[in-house]
Write the structure tokens for this entry.
Amino acid sequence: QVQLVESGGGLVQAGDSLRLSCAASGRTFSNYHMGWFRQAPGKEREFVARINRDGTSTYYADSVKGRFTISRDNAQSTLYLQMNNLKPEDTAVYFCAARRFIQTNYDYWGQGTQVTVSS
């Protein structure tokens, strides 16, 4: 089992920045591909970004490309999402997720952290 705990959410104004963290425990963090997802009220959960096991490959949703940066610190078993130039449409609960293999679905999910961006 992998336990994931997100933190760093909050209420900010449009144009501000936030950095989300996802602390992992239970298994060897570097063995897992990681991702960030978000879910806005009344909408389905959507993909935000993903990163491979050693951090050398990343991929972003078009809606966040150029504004968000996913990274990881395997020594600290922590995943990050740096969010710059936030927009009201970024308002959502943000979740981190882990999967052992890139071809499979994400196996483990955190409880989420709320990000609210006011205009």
